Amino acid sequence: MTGGSGRTAHVAALLIGLASVGAWIATGREGFTRWPDARLEASDAPVSDAEQDLLDEIGVGSEPASESARIESRFAFGLLPGGADPKHLPSVATGLVLATGVSAVAMLRRRLTRNPSRETTP
Q: Any idea where the domains of the chain sit in the sequence?
């Protein structure tokens, strides 16, 4: 392995890390990775008149929900994985683990090829 391919691996690791942070910033700087969810969208939908009448009868729901209480159903690349589901694993943390792994493999390969076996010849 030449020094150039080691440098290439380190540059690739740096680009992976920068791309992860860039995706995090571009998608809203969320703490956890999330994907659009139909159930969240349905929960934020306005209730029908019949449902509103029933809620008013029991004294619940007379005030409309504030905008801050709404949960947006959208993709967000988070700092941490949003769960163990493979769909939620992409995150800044997993990108940095991947980048560290690429860089570590490059360093190990360089060290192993630089130090051939230490057998002595008579």
A: 1-35+77-115, 36-74
